[in-house]
Amino acid sequence: MRVILFTGKGGVGKTTVAAATAVRAAEAGQRTLVMSTDPAHSLADSFETRIGSAPTPIIQHLWGQEIDAQERLEDNWRDIQDYMVQLMNWAGTETIQAEELTVIPGLDEIFALIDVKTHVQSGKYDCLVVDCAPTAETLRLLSLPEIMSWYIERIFPVERKVVKAVRPLVSRMTSLPIASDQVFEAVERLHRNLDAVKGILTDEAVSSVRLVVNPEKMVISEARRTYTYLGLFGYRVDAVVVNRVLPPDVTDPYFGKWKDIQAEHLATVHESFEPVPILLSRLFDREMVGIPLLEEMAEEVYGELNAVSILHHDDPIRVRKRDDGYVLRMRLPFVSRDDMDIHRRGEELVVRVGSYKRNLILPQSLKRMVVREANFAGDHLEIMFGRGSQPADPERG
Ligand SMILES: Nc1ncnc2c1ncn2[C@@H]1O[C@H](COP(=O)(O)OP(=O)(O)OP(=O)(O)O)[C@@H](O)[C@H]1O
Ligand SMILES: [Mg+2]
């Protein structure tokens, strides 16, 4: 079983690359389902065919699904929402406002991901290709199971016990709505589902994320940030797809400057993501819709590669608390250990060891800290961060 997620900034070509990958997988004989969790679906446009909210056959071995987020929201959130509305009513909020307040933006999309679990468990498919919403939403979505687990494992058992004990008493004394067993069950079910989704998506033998970018400054910055956060949440990136690269046969001087700019951005992509494989797709001379063009795009992106296999075993950066600071740990195999230079540039950390250079965007927790020291532990580089005002010195390992 394989699950491949595609994400990236708005408009970079996520849906197109996801669709192309799915066509390629299906044509290699893998039973493939391409599903979109982005409420603004465009899979059907890519395939130029109707795609329903249930898996719809497209070609042999290929199905598509545009998840009805509203429906998923109803299934997963209704009981919980009803209780929240009751609470707000009790506190004096009009029902209509309370209804609005309990619609948490982006929640529908999160529930759409629960379908990944359903499909993996069904055993009907060999490969799931997920066309995600633009990065910011996807990240929030992927971090939710973590947040939910934290809440549910620490606070929820206490709450539930307390409620069990005081429910008879409180209901006699006040009209405060007390969560019913049904509400608790809904929360538990949701937690189980999200936990299972998280389990699948962080299983390195099953799932990987492919980042789609264009050779443009903003797009790449966002992808780098995404890369850091995906790693922190335990999701593995197995490829970066650079889409819309000007092909060599474009020689019109009008595009000369654009080609230089793209070359420069491509270099940044290499510095930021290597050793993750970087796959390229040129800017085609037409919109890439319909099976034949999607096949052509897949050929361009994957060439000899098997689109379904895990293209890279990423070992994402990790940040752990240690004493009064943090340790950032990243794998840096095959580098010579002398000549190490680490410095901060705003929110960016630049690591240079010998001829190897790696730029990464620091997570929020480390932005206000300074680099204290860096050492190798096996083939991992450990960088210690602490509070302080002294400039981050380059350290020797
Ligand atoms: N390499 C390419 N060459 C030419 N056209 C392309 C290429 N990649 C994508 N397109 C076209 O660009 C348009 C946008 O692509 P797509 O819908 O895949 O982007 P997206 O990242 O999914 O957007 P959104 O963020 O809105 O979901 C589509 O019309 C698609 O056919
Ligand atoms: Mg899209």
Short description:
This protein is α/β, with parallel strands linked by helices. The protein has 13 helices and 15 strands.
Bound molecules: adenosine-5'-triphosphate, magnesium ion
Looking at CATH, the homologous superfamily of the largest domain is P-loop containing nucleotide triphosphate hydrolases
User: In order across it, which strands form the biggest sheet?
Assistant: 3-4-2-5-1-6-7-8
Reading off the top of the CATH hierarchy, the class of the largest domain is best stated as: Alpha Beta
The oligomeric state of the chains shown is single chain
Main beta sheet:
8 strands, mixed
How many DSSP-defined strands? 15
Which residue ranges are poorly predicted, with pLDDT under 50 across at least 5 consecutive positions?
392-397
Number of domain units: 2
CATH architectural arrangement of the largest domain: 3-Layer(aba) Sandwich
Q: Count of DSSP helices?
A: 13
Indicate the structural class: alpha/beta
Annotated CATH topology of the largest domain: Rossmann fold
